[in-house]
Amino acid sequence: MSRPPGLGTRHCQALMTFSSIVLDFSIRSNLSIGIVAMTDNTRPNPSLPVLPWTSSQKGIILGSLFWGYFLTTAPGGHLSRKWGPKYLMFAAMLVCAVISILCPFIALNYGWFAFSLSRVVLGLAQGFLLPSVHTHLAKWTPLQERNRTIAIVISGSTVGVVVTMPIAGYLAASSWGWPSIFYCTGLCGVLWSAVWLFVGADSPESHPSISDREREYIITTRIGSSSHSQTMKTPWWPILTSKPVWALTVAHFSHNWGKWTLLTELSSYLRHVYGYDIKSNGLISALPHLCSLIMMVVFSWAADVINSRELVSLTSSRKISSTIAQWGGAIALCGLPFISSPTSAVTLLTVSIALGAASYTGSLPNPLDLSPNFTGLVLGITFGLGSLSAILGPSLTGFIVTDEVGLI
Question: pLDDT above 70 covers what percent of the chain?
Answer without folding.
Answer: 92
